[in-house]
Amino acid sequence: MPSFLLLEAICVFLFAGVPPSLPLQEVHVSRDTIGKISAASKMMWCSAAVDILFLMDGSHSVGKGSFERSKHFAITVCDALDINLKRVRVGAFQFSSAPHLEFPLDSFSTQQEVKAKIKRMVFKGGRTETGLALKYLLRKGFPGGRNASVPQILIIITDGRSQGHVALPAKQLKERGITVFAVGVRFPRWEELHTLASEPREQHVLMAEQVEDAANGLFSTLSSSAICTIASPDCKVQPHPCERKTLETVRELVGNALCWRGSRGTNAVLAALCPFSSWKRVFLTHPATCYRTTCPGPCDSQPCQNGGTCVPEGLDRYHCLCPAAFGGEANCAPKLSLECRIDVLFLLAGSAGTTLEGFLRAKAFVKRFVQASLSEDSRARVGVALYSEELVVAVPVGEYQDVPHLVRSLDGIPFSGGATLTGSALRQAAEHGFGSATRTGQDRPRRVVVLLTESRSQDEVAGPARHARARELFLLGVGSEAVRTELEEITGSPKHVMIYTDPQDLFNQIPELQGKLCSRPQPGCQAQSLDLVFMLDASASVGPGNFAQMQSFVRSCTLQFDVNPDVTQVGLVVYGSQVQTAFGLDTHPTRASVLRAMSQAPYLGGAGSAGMALLHIYDKVMTVQKGARPGVPKAVVMLTGGRGAEDAAVPAQKLRDNGVSVLVVGVGPVLREALRRLAGPRDSLIHVASYADLRYHQDVLIEWLCGGALRGDAPKAQGSRREPAGGQQP
Fold this sequence. Notes:
Layout: E1 25-27, H1 31-43, E2 50-57, H2 63-78, E3 88-95, E4 99-103, H3 111-119, H4 130-140, E5 152-158, H5 167-175, E6 179-184, H6 190-196, E7 205-207, H7 211-224, E8 236-262, E9 269-294, E10 309-313, E11 317-321, E12 342-349, H8 355-373, E13 381-387, E14 391-395, H9 403-411, H10 422-432, E15 446-453, H11 462-470, E16 473-479, H12 484-491, E17 497-499, H13 503-507, H14 510-517, E18 530-537, H15 544-558, E19 568-575, E20 579-583, H16 591-599, H17 610-620, E21 634-640, H18 649-657, E22 660-667, H19 673-679, E23 685-688, H20 698-711
Parallel strand pairs: 2-3, 2-5, 5-6, 6-7, 12-13, 12-15, 15-16, 16-17, 18-19, 18-21, 21-22, 22-23
Antiparallel strand pairs: 1-8, 3-4, 8-9, 10-11, 13-14, 19-20
Helix pairs in contact: 1-7, 2-3, 2-7, 4-5, 8-9, 10-11, 15-16, 17-18, 18-19
C-alpha cells in the first residue's frame, strides 16, 4: 500500500518578550496596605547572630537583566542587616554550569563592603545546575560561617528551571537545620521553588522582581520564627491572599489549512485540509497566601474631616486633599476659636499599653486641635507632656506662640513604651507641668490638664488626682471605653470625660473639648456626709441590657461624692427573683472599690417586688449594725421600670418616717400610677423616658441629694426602733 507524505502547515507564534516590570506575584490588598508593606520594609532591621548565604542563579535562562535584579534584591536585604563578624555574616555564591564562590561569610565586616562586592558581581552564563550548587554546599558547608552554632539561612535566587535534580540535595540541606528561602526571578517555575523552600513553603517562597514586597516577606518570616526581631512591636505579620503567575508555552489548535499530499508511485498531488496550530506563551495563575508585615500609618486615624482624602507622606506624615469649602483649613476642619485665657497641658500616654498606633493618634489629635483652635490673637497657651514610667515635658506651656512652630515641635515627640504610671504622671504634672510661674490668684490663667490615654494605669490614680485638683488644676480626660471608669475617677465627673469609639470619633471630640476648656465647673456637695443606698430593679421586666445602663448611671452619680467612712458611704441593693444586698454601706471604703463592685452587681431576672426590697433596706441595710451612722443624712435612690411597685408605698413611707429620704427614678414612656403614689407627698420623683436617657437626669438627681436629702428636708422619725439609723442612738 503506497505511503503518503503528510505535509502539515504549522504556524509558530512566540512572544518576543514580556516587560520585566510585569508583576508575576501580586498581593491582593488595598493600595493603602501596599503602601504600608513598602513602608514597613524600610523599617526592618535584623541584628541577631546569624549566617546568611546568597546562592544566585547566573545561568543563560535567567539572563543578565534578571541577574542584575537579583543583585538589587540581595542589596536591599543587606540594607536591613547589622553586618559584622559577631552578628550577621553574609556570603555569596553564583552558580550556572558550576558553583562559584563570590565571597565567603567572613570576608567583610561592614554593610558597605558587602553591598559593594555584590554590585561588582559579573554575570557568567551557562547551564542551570542548581543541584550541583546544593551538593557543593552539602560537602563544604557555609564557607566562612560558624557552622551550626548560629542559625543558617540560604537564600536561593533562581528561575527554578534547573537542568538537574534538586529535590534530594534541598531536602538534605533542610534536614541539617538550614532555613532555605527560594526567591524567583524572570518567569520562575514555582513548583521547583516550592521544592527548594523550607516549610511552611508559603512563607519561604518570594519573588525578587518586587523588591520591597520580597524583602518584607523574608523578614516577616524571620520575625515569626524568632530568628530576628526586626520591626516595632506595633507592626504585625498578617496573611494576605496573593496570586503567582507562570509563563508556559502551550500548543493551541487554530483551525484547518489547505495542504498537499502525494506518493512516489504517481505524479499526482492531492489537496487536503490539514490541522493548523499555533504555539503561545501564556500565564498560568496559582492562588497562594503571602505573609507580610504592616505598621501603623499616618492616615490610620483618618485625620481628614468633611470628606477630605488623606495622602500619606512617608511613615509619620500626611496631607489632606480637602473639598473646596474646607481647602484653607488644617485637616479640612472648620476653624474654631479658643477665647478664654487658659494654660493647657496635654498629657499623652506613651506606654507600651497605649501602643505606637494609639500614641500617633493622640499626637494627631493634639496637632489638629492646635491647628483648629489657636490663632495669633488667642489667649490660650498650650504645652505637651509624654509619660510612661516618667513624665517628660516635651513642649513647655507657652514656649511656642505661633501655631506652625508648635505643630513642628509635636512631630519630634518620640514613642517611649514602658509601664503606664498615670498616677505618678498626674502628681508630676501638678508639681512641674506648668513651669515655675509665680503668678497667683486673679493674675494666673486657669490651668487645665487634658489626659489622653487608651491604657489603664498600673499605679493608683485617686490620690494623685485629688492632689492635682487641690492645686487648682482642672482635669479633663479623653480616651477609649476601656478607661472610662478610670478617667471618671481622675477627673471627678463623667462630664469631664470624652469617650471615643473609633479614630474618627476621637477627632470629632475637638469642639466638645473646646467648650469644656472654656467652661467653669459648678461646685458640688462632695465634702458633706451622707449614707446613700441605690436600689436597682433587676427583674425580667427590665432586662440585662437596661440593667447595665442603670449600673452605668449609678456609677456616674457616685463619682460626684467623696466616698470614705468619714464623708459619703454608698450601698447597693438589687431585686428581682429575690432581694440581694450587692454591698452594704460599710463594705467598700473607697470610691474606686465602690465603682468596681457596682459593675459586678448581679442581674437577677424573675418577678420583682419593690416593696420587699424597701423593707429589706429598712431591716438589713440602713441600720447601725450594717454601717449606717447616727446623725448623718440618709437617702435611698430607687431605679425601676415601674412593674412590681404596687406594694412599695407603705415601705417607702416607713423609711421616710425613720428619717430616710426616698427618691424614685421611674423609667418608661408612661409614668405608672404606682410610682406616683410611691413618690410621696413631696413628689420625690424623676421620670425618665428611656434607660438610655438616664445620663441626662444625673444633674437633677445630684441636686436632689445635695439639696433636700442633705438639708434634712425629709420627714423626721416618728419614733424609735431597735436598730435606728437616723439621729437617735440605740
